[in-house]
Write a structure and sequence with these properties.
By secondary structure, chain A is of the alpha/beta class. Helices cover 35% and strands 14% of the residues of chain A. In chain A, helix 9 links the parallel strand 7 and strand 8. In chain A, helix 7 (150-159) crosses helix 8 and helix 16 packs across helix 17. In chain B, helix 7 (143-157) packs across helix 10. Classes of the chains: A alpha/beta, B alpha+beta.
Chain lengths: 575, 258
């Protein structure tokens, strides 16, 4: 994206900041409620009209010496700097500022250790909170400090001396940098200025959800009804909070700075996936959004994730079984989908060397092809020699001689949907074979598993088991209470989860409208989410992008077993 | 609100009565609904260990600036970001290492080391030789790089010592596969006597509980180092960030007379 474009997209938000948005040309607005129009001049977006904000937003994503030092702890030429941590001299690569202060620079906390906000606007302003005792006691260690100057900041980074003149905690390393390097670093800290975020106006927060044209009308309806209901309630709540501001004596506007009316835009993608990027660009240029949330496609998600990377746009929890194998920074997925299932089979093959041949049968669904490709590729890297062969279902049906190959050392993996499985019968020769099925391709409808399969057949199941009690599905109750039908349980629960997590993390970022910070808050808090949807457990940490990491590969006869019995079949395979 | 206004607000005194009200609100709002309007607990205590979850929640309330600055944290006339900025407590106070002595009992569990080999964790920990232990995860941003680089230096400085074993146990075992731990070991130039342990989530939690370091979520974990001279001695627990020098001298101290 060009500079001009970047600036234009952002400028557009600012310009239309106070207008009610009810759908642009070429896009349907899911949520059509309009915001209360606000008088012009009452813009409370933090300094959003400043050009500096726009320029900084552009500049911080450009490669630079300062960015390199901040993100990697190394100068851009790949050389190494030396860092003093706990009195020990260590390579800078281990101590990039971004590790601790995070990509956003807005800081974090870990195990009671506060890592402060080191964005330029914060550092160069004083902290002068007048502390009352009660307050101070409760939160321990509040402190005030004068604004940093470039000189005192240099001292902080290289000597660990803060603008108060006191020594900083030794957790903060001391960096051996020359003046040119500290200058570059300080310049970069100055670009960490979130005063002109895309998709944020004084009253509205623009969000988008993405649906591709392979999604059926029923599925789309199920998705949109869940989204609409959630956003409607969210906005009603926001109105309530805003009213509280007006009528309660001590609530000031700024406390609700982060309360915004959500406008959820539907971005529908049509035609060949190679054109999606351009379609997305057009949607974005017309109406930039702060984040993409939920959405679904049955095709590979890669073109969407490529767009989100290019735009530095958070893309949160899309419903896809085909995310890219190496996720970027800005997309967060429920799981690695079919690749996870393929890797789970590899995990089994590594453990049980008795299988030396794998026959994969694929169906019409692209997810089946992707899984088989990943598995075939990974089989070649196994240390025990293993042969793999992939056939389509029709090839398999036309080649009954294959059945003679059955032996204890052959593993059949049927990447087939329920209806496809029906085409195979007890006579297909598989009745005695060791067969693996994918529960994702069966739409998690385990009653579609044919009865004639042998005892030693297995199920790939990257979800919690039907009888599990550890699961926390609050969404079920939520949807039921609202009379929303749930023909697509996973899609709808996932959507509820995505929106709940977004709600909670938007509350945490307060008026720091940094998209990196949004992602950092989600990384930090997902593990405590009260909702796990259909998954066994969800958790992230800095840099982790697949929230559910494990998968059952469980004998069919054990599916209904107790937690103790089934536990051994769950594993998180190597990438 | 612009920066100038913010700055002028910063200097306004805080009004007394309001803070009390705000604090009361804070505690209820943290326990109660998040913004979405569903008045259910923000964190459901449904996992096996409600105690740890509770601890984690309290830690979160006390420590985590993000949870802290909920809308209810309102005191009139302050900068919206003031709390946030001010929360970077002067942490120099935390630099001190707390030392204590405990009788932790390692459970009998079969876990995996960085080479994917099964390891009886109780055997490993109940060695009659000196052991040095910590709990880490490879994607941990702040605490673990500091702990691990200290271990790395100790590992190098005590390279001549045959009998010491160093053990780093992952508290994020699903992400930290043996291969991930192998890469981590390489990054910190670990020698053969430094092993990295992973396993099932359940086993990792059981082990963390046995050493009183389980805090519900890995993002709440604390820097702790454990050491002892042999299985018949109590464990020494060091809370905080001991330097490599301190650990080396702890080692010499505890092995004196052996």
């Amino acid at each position: 994206m060009s500079v001009i474009n970047a600036l234009l997209s952002a400028a557009f938000v600012v310009a239309i900041g106070c207008l009610p948005l009810t759908g642009q040309a070429g896009q349907a607005t899911v949520q059509t409620e309009t915001a209360n129009p606000q008088p012009i001049g009452k813009q409370r977006t933090p300094d959003s009209a400043t050009e500096t904000g726009l320029v900084n937003r552009f500049a911080r994503n450009q490669p630079s010496e300062g960015r390199s030092l901040f993100m990697t702890g190394q100068p851009s030429d790949g050389s190494s700097i030396s860092v003093l941590s706990q009195g020990q001299s260590l390579p800078g690569e281990l101590f990039a500022c971004a590790n601790c202060h995070r990509h956003s620079g807005l800081g974090t906390s870990e195990g009671g250790y506060q890592v402060p906000d080191i964005t330029g606007p914060t550092l160069f302003a004083p902290i002068e909170v007048k502390q009352r005792e009660l307050y101070a006691e409760r939160t321990e260690g509040f402190y005030t400090r004068p604004a940093y100057t470039r000189d005192t900041l240099r001292m902080a980074i290289t000597q660990g001396i803060s603008s108060t003149g006191k020594t900083l905690s030794k957790v903060m390393p001391r960096y051996q940098l020359n003046d040119a390097q500290t200058d570059a670093l300080i310049n970069y800290l100055n670009t960490l200025d979130y005063s002109a975020p895309p998709g944020v106006s004084a009253d509205n927060l623009q969000l988008a959800t993405i649906i591709t044209d392979d999604v059926s009308a029923e599925e789309k309806q199920a998705l949109l009804s869940t989204l609409n209901q959630f956003v409607k309630e969210k906005n009603a709540q926001t109105r309530h909070e805003v009213r509280r501001v007006k009528y309660s004596p001590w609530h000031k506007d700024w406390q609700y700075d982060n309360y915004r009316h959500w406008e959820l835009n539907l971005w529908e993608l049509r035609g060949d996936p190679s054109t999606w990027f351009a379609q997305l660009q057009q949607y974005y240029d017309t109406n930039p959004v702060f984040a993409v949330v939920g959405g679904t496609s049955h095709q590979r998600w890669e073109p969407v994730s490529a767009f989100c990377e290019a735009q530095a746009l958070p893309c949160l929890f899309p419903n896809t079984d085909l995310p890219p194998d190496t996720p970027g920074h800005y997309s967060i997925y429920f799981s690695a989908g079919m690749n996870l299932e393929a890797r789970r089979v590899i995990y089994l093959l590594k453990k049980h060397s008795r299988y030396n041949k794998v026959i994969q049968v694929t169906g019409e669904d692209v997810r089946s092809t992707v899984a088989a490709e990943t598995l075939a590729r990974k089989v070649t890297s196994l240390s025990a020699p293993t042969v793999s062969e992939t056939l389509s279902l029709s090839e398999y049906l036309n080649n009954p001689s294959l059945t003679s190959e059955n032996s204890a050392s052959t593993l059949y993996i049927l990447w087939l949907t329920g209806p496809e499985l029906k085409k195979l019968s007890a006579h297909s020769g598989l009745a005695d074979a060791t067969v693996i099925l994918s529960s994702t391709l069966l739409n998690r409808q385990l009653d579609q598993i044919p009865g004639w399969l042998s005892e030693q057949s297995w199920l790939l199941h990257p979800y919690s088991l039907p009888g599990s009690t550890s699961q926390r599905i609050r969404s079920k109750t939520w949807l039921y209470a609202r009379g929303i039908a749930t023909p697509y349980e996973r899609l709808q629960s996932n959507t509820y989860l995505a929106l709940s997590v977004l709600t909670e993390s938007m509350m945490h970022i307060r008026s720091n409208f940094s998209q990196d910070y949004l992602i950092e808050r989600i990384e930090h808090m997902l593990e405590n989410s009260p909702e796990t949807s259909v998954y066994q457990r969800l958790s992230l940490a800095p840099g982790q992008r697949f929230a559910s990491k494990g998968c059952y590969l469980i004998p069919l006869k054990k599916i209904d077993g107790s937690a103790e019995e089934t536990r051994q079949y769950w594993a998180a395979p190597e990438r | 609100m612009n920066r100038k206004q913010i700055r002028s607000l910063l200097t306004n005194p805080v009004k007394t009565g309001l803070t009390v009200a705000a604090l009361a609100l804070l505690s209820t709002s943290l326990l109660q609904a998040h913004e979405g309007g569903q008045h259910e607990p923000a964190m459901e205590i449904s996992s096996e260990d409600s105690h740890a979850q509770h601890k984690a929640m309290m830690a979160e309330m006390k420590m985590d600036h993000s949870a802290h600055e909920d809308h209810a944290m309102a005191t009139e006339g302050e900068d919206p970001h003031a709390h946030h900025k001010a929360m970077m407590s002067n942490m120099a106070g935390k630099d001190q290492v707390q030392r204590s002595s405990h009788d932790y009992k390692a459970p009998h569990l079969t876990m995996l080391n960085q080479n994917g080999e099964p390891v009886a964790i109780d055997k490993l920990l109940n060695s009659d030789k000196p052991v040095l232990v910590n709990f880490i995860f490879t994607t941990c941003p702040t605490i673990c790089p500091v702990l691990s680089s200290t271990f790395s230096i100790v590992n190098r400085e005590l390279a001549g010592v045959e009998d010491l074993s160093m053990i780093s146990i992952s508290i994020d075992p699903e992400e930290d596969t043996p291969e991930a731990l192998q890469r981590y070991a390489k990054k910190f130039e670990a020698r053969d006597n430094w092993s990295f342990i992973t396993g099932s989530v359940e086993d990792s939690i059981q082990l963390q509980k046995a050493f009183d370091i389980y805090r519900g979520s890995k993002m709440n974990h604390e820097p702790v180092t454990y050491l002892r001279a042999s299985a018949d001695k109590p464990w020494t627990r060091l809370d905080g960030f001991p330097s490599s020098e301190q650990l080396v001298s702890e080692y010499h101290h505890m092995t004196m007379g052996h």
